[in-house]
Amino acid sequence: MISKKMSDRINLQINREMYSAYLYLAMAARMGEAGYKGVANWLTIQYHEEMFHAMKMYGYLQDQGASVALDAIARPDFKETGVKEIFQHTLEHEKGVTASIREIAALAREEKDYATENFIAWYVDEQVEEEKNATEILQTIDLLGNNAQGIFMLNIELGKRKLGVPSDFTGLAGH
Ligand code: FEO
Fold it and tell me: Is residue 165 part of a domain?
């Protein structure tokens, strides 16, 4: 069993993960409309990854006998239309998610909630990967010169990204 404070905090994180999913899906649509199908593919995969992050927490709350309380998801907030700017926004967004995950890790330690500390460790590692992915794409954009030809090549490369989470995840207890 976990504390009410902890289940509230994890419910908040579910909302933040679903907002992340919503943000990346909106960005994917924007990029797809602009003809960057590869970038749109990368962002759509990212959408699925975020839903996996949310559903993994959903499943954890259910495994702990805690209540899942879903809240309204905010409208995706971004104005960028350029590929580089989209990934700059992505990196900044992920830094914010990292800070949010660290809060849960700190709370788990404060409450001596070892189960949640173990559970959230996966997300701590995942955030290293999330920031690395966006950082490497931005580095590639800079290496390619941030010009039309470079963005075209990057677009092809990002079109190759495949789903990195189980395609049949459900969030049901026991997953
Ligand atoms: Fe769920 Fe992109 O972190």
Answer: no
